[in-house]
Prior knowledge:
- The chain is an all-alpha fold.
- Helix content is 80%, strand content 0%.
- It has four helices and no strands.
Amino acid sequence: KEARRRVITVEMMEVEDFIRHIPDGEDREIFEAMFIDDIKQWEIADMLNMERSNISKRINRHLKLSRISQS
Length: 71
């Protein structure tokens, strides 16, 4: 169990670091809500008065940019 906790801690730190590099604004708010606060996409969309599909598109755009920059 302890090894798994260490892995989770490292992964959470990586997620927080990734989010820190997103410029301030709605996109960062979306990532924080979803990946740190564990809020569902439809709930975030409701909070931001957006369509759920737009939330998904914003997330995918940042993840795609991240993969490109790691190549």
